[in-house]
Design a protein that fits this description.
little secondary structure, 0% helix, 72 residues, OB fold (Dihydrolipoamide Acetyltransferase, E2P)
Length: 72
């Protein structure tokens, strides 16, 4: 993936199972390396912009920080 503001190329992991990403989708990237993937220093943030959260990935506790409603 290429960052839009400085055009550097970074490698990021997709957390959880499955995704709905497209080639030119808007996503947010956060720092944090994956332990089992050498050279990967970033992770994508689910539930923001074009990267939709999946059912099994949604938080049950501390939802207010991310604006997620209480599950029923």
């Amino acid at each position: 993936m290429r960052l839009p503001f400085n055009y550097k190329r970074v490698f990021a992991t997709v957390p959880g199972k499955g995704h709905n990403l497209h080639e030119h989708g808007a996503i947010l990237v956060r720092g944090g390396s994956a332990k089992d993937l050498p050279g990967v220093n970033y992770a994508l943030m689910r539930g923001l912009l074009d990267f939709v959260a999946t059912e099994e990935f949604q938080r049950k506790a501390r939802r207010s920080k991310f604006g997620i409603k209480r599950p029923e």
